[in-house]
Amino acid sequence: MGRGLQILSIALAMFVGSECQSITVSPPYDILYVIAPSAFNLSCNHITESNSGSDIEWKKDGVKITEETKHSTISGDKKKTVLNIVKPSSSAADAGQYDCVESPSGTKFSITVVVAKVNSNDVEFKRNMGSVKLGCETEGTGFPTNYTVTWEREHQPITTIEDYEEKYTVNNTMPNHTLEIKNAERADAGAYQCVFDFSSHANGSKVSQKVSVTANLFASPLIRRFEKSKNLIQRDPLELKCGVYGHPLGNITWSKDGVVLVANERIKFNPGSGLDNGILSIEHVEFEDKGTYMCLASSVRYNTTANSTILVRVKDKLAALWPFLGIVAEVVILCIIIFIYEKKRSKEDPADNDETDVKSGSANANEANEVRQRNVRA
Hints:
The chain is α+β, with helices and mostly antiparallel strands. The protein has helices spanning 2-19, 164-167, 321-377; strands at residues 22-26, 31-36, 40-49, 55-60, 63-64, 69-75, 78-87, 96-103, 108-120, 123-124, 132-139, 147-153, 156-157, 168-173, 176-181, 190-202, 205-223, 229-233, 238-241, 244-247, 252-256, 259-260, 267-272, 275-282, 291-299, 304-315. The longest helix has 57 residues, at 321-377.
């Protein structure tokens, strides 16, 4: 009986000890797909009793890995150990089976890393170049086949672009996956991604892993011209958008009358044209804000710049009333002149009537005298 009780106690202790241990591997896939030279990280988390003496280690294809990083914390009677493998870049040599092994039990949790190779092509934009093709070509006979490919522009699906069907043609025939941009313009320049969606399993469920490769349509910077001038009234809002085309986009500098502008309580820079300061805005303009504004875009890749200027005029907030008030003043003055003239004329009319009566009386008298003289002669 004593012997059986001892065996039962040992078995119970082992059971309780195993229940207190917990190991998780991240990412949780059974197969991790990596496209070289992308980075990847593996993490093994181990939680156990603080005094258990249990530990973990990483092995690759059965060989202990030495370039791992380890971090342990103790909280109460629990000990948490995190063991990381960090790969800033990947190559074919990193492919294999990775095991997080717990000692002394020898329990292990495995993840297989598949490192694939994809070659992408970049294109330089030229005027009137017509259609261009960006491509991602898979390399090697052992490249996985359990995937689909979609295309994105600046990490946004090209199917969401308004003129998608007229602008793009996609050909996803292995091993070449191409995106044709019809009648390419400078505005089409940018970073395009061919996104490989691999099917895998995690915790017994089917999942997908998305890995992207970038193909670039490069172009030197060009700024859409501003209108020649903008007329504003005091306290109006001002917003200037620097429409920059090109890839990669350099930084933008805003200036007024040759002086570089910096953000403050009144002057704000907001995102636009893919840049953090692509839009300049002033909520309420004042007279001091009038002047010539310039947006200057630079490109390190092409060692060149592009700029556009606009003249901003600011008028008094009562400026719109001045023409009206001028017209009212002219009407009032005209009415006063007419009034004075009519009043003056009304005063002069009696004298004019008396003179007319005198002249009429004299004429009548003369006529009467002439008649009498004719009668006497007769």
